[in-house]
Amino acid sequence: MENKRPLILISNDDGFQAKGINELIRYVSDLGDIVVMAPDGPRSGQSSAITVHDPVRYQLVRRVSGLTIYKCSGTPTDCIKLSKMTVLERKPDLLLSGINHGENAGINAIYSGTMGAVIEGCLNSIPSIGFSVDNHSLDADFVHCAETIRRIIRKTLQEGLPQNICLNVNFPAEGEIKGVRICRQTKGVWGHEWEKQTHPRGFDFFWLTGDFENKEPECEDTDNWAFHNGYASITPTSVDLTAYEMIDKLKAWNL
Amino acid sequence: MENKRPLILISNDDGFQAKGINELIRYVSDLGDIVVMAPDGPRSGQSSAITVHDPVRYQLVRRVSGLTIYKCSGTPTDCIKLSKMTVLERKPDLLLSGINHGENAGINAIYSGTMGAVIEGCLNSIPSIGFSVDNHSLDADFVHCAETIRRIIRKTLQEGLPQNICLNVNFPAEGEIKGVRICRQTKGVWGHEWEKQTHPRGFDFFWLTGDFENKEPECEDTDNWAFHNGYASITPTSVDLTAYEMIDKLKAWNL
After folding, report:
1. Does residue B106 contact residue B185 with C-beta atoms inside 8 Å?
2. Does A180 contact B at CB distance below 8 Å?
């Protein structure tokens, strides 16, 4: 009676040495055989970027029982694409990305390299989940998320996910998790996004910064509300971007 | 009686010197006052990437009556974010991105820097449209798209677009446009994505390439079908990634 362990592919956008991914590996190590293909350094804000103009390479970092870690010179999306053709002997049963140092809720999911890896897994019909914590610190604490992460993973391995849908999970910075809320993406916009400085040679340059303006801070069904109020948020996320509700309206434009 | 001209912001991912963006500027120059903020070089495949770890700068390239062109060291998304805080005196009435050298239909919209700029415009409540032609040549022909582009722009200026919805327009490589079809994003996956080569020092490296496997080539309501059959495709595209149909199912998981 064979009891084959699930194959779990793990990536992130903070790089293979980040605390978050190494904590995630620790939390899930008994749930399956793990292959890590993660960027060789920070790739925050890389969205679903792919490396078009340069070659990409990968290298083995460590192989121990049930765990193999590779680092990759590309983006999070490149990591998933490259692992598929190189180090994976079969399609993974699950793809995990994170745990990201910093939340990826609301429209941040669009810029997120963590979610870039998740979206790529989903496009390849792998049940895919991104995990992020609302704490940018290099030494952020993740232990309060461990049990919820394991529960979500076990249930996803059991139930699967529909084609074209992946999960975006966000956690509060700290404290006991009050529960899990199924959410929608919070509406909002970034403001005051650049800080201007002047180069010694006299020209201006700009650092990306900014404040997120939540347009619906009171809406308890949004992901931002959930993790700001002590809950883990799960936002089911589609890789089919079609705005179906707009199709008939556009047809009526008679273009 | 003031007849204020629309303010049109234009960007792309092929860079400010590409033929496609300069053709687009030519086609729309009588439709409004134009500000261009485009990358200083190629940024294909940058998706909605933002520049997190480096400063970004911009420079004036040219200013003539009704047209101002800036180049920017960042990604297409950076271009839109930076123009908002620096060179734009008011919110644009329209954002255009392209014309891209190469199609951005189906799941390619997810990787596309052209669509990255469009999505950023949409997140900032600007009616936003991406234009792409199924021809990667640096000297691609765009003239066959001009009249359709103008018709789509005029209608969008007149009707506006709903919050959170932008347009992804793709054209055949050549030939008279048979008409405009309102489409959904084609389902498919990229295969054979990497070409392996060996470095003189003995290690392997990989170039991103690949074949798009269209999972529904016969479906006449998809964007790939449309531009492969001589039509311009318009895919209404949402920046709210929530898979609403999954919310109740996930609630039933009782996490």
Report:
1. yes
2. yes
Q: Which residue has the tokens 């936003």?
A: B128
Q: Quick check: is A205 in a domain?
A: no
Here the ipTM equals 0.96
What residue numbers bound the domain in which A167 lies? Answer: 7-186+218-251
pLDDT tens per residue across span B136-168: 999 999 999 999 999 999 999 999 999 999 999
Q: Does pLDDT of B2 surpass 90? A: no
Q: Treating both helix axes as pointing N-terminal to C-terminal, what angle do B19-28 and B146-159 enclose, rounded to 10 degrees?
A: 60
Q: Where are the alpha helices (DSSP H) in B107-243?
A: 108-111, 113-123, 146-159, 223-228
The enclosing domain of A229 has a CATH number of: 3.40.1210.10
Interface check A152 vs B, CB under 8 A: yes
Separation of alpha carbons B205 and A78, rounded Å: 13
Let me know if residue B207 belongs to a domain. Answer: no
B147–chain A nearest CA distance, Å: 11
The answer to whether the CB of B16 falls within 8 A of the CB of B76 is no
Q: Which token pair is A200?
A: 């010694």
Query: What's the pLDDT tens digit per position in A33-65?
Result: 999 999 999 999 999 999 999 999 999 999 999
Instruction: Give exposure, A179-195, as e/b (b: 16+ Cβ within 10 Å).
Output: ebbbbbbbbbbbeebbe
Which runs of consecutive H residues, i.e. helices, occur in chain B?
19-28, 76-85, 108-111, 113-123, 146-159, 223-228, 247-251
Question: Cβ of A212 under 8 Å from any chain B Cβ?
Answer: no
Give chain A positions within 8 Å (CB) of B162.
246
Could you tell me if residue A50 is inside a domain? yes
Length of chain B: 255
State how many domains chain A has.
1
d(CA B197, nearest CA chain A) in Å: 9
The verdict on residue B201 lying in a domain is no
| One-letter amino acid for residue B195 of the chain | E
pLDDT confidence of residue A4: 82
CB contact B110 to A (< 8 Å): yes
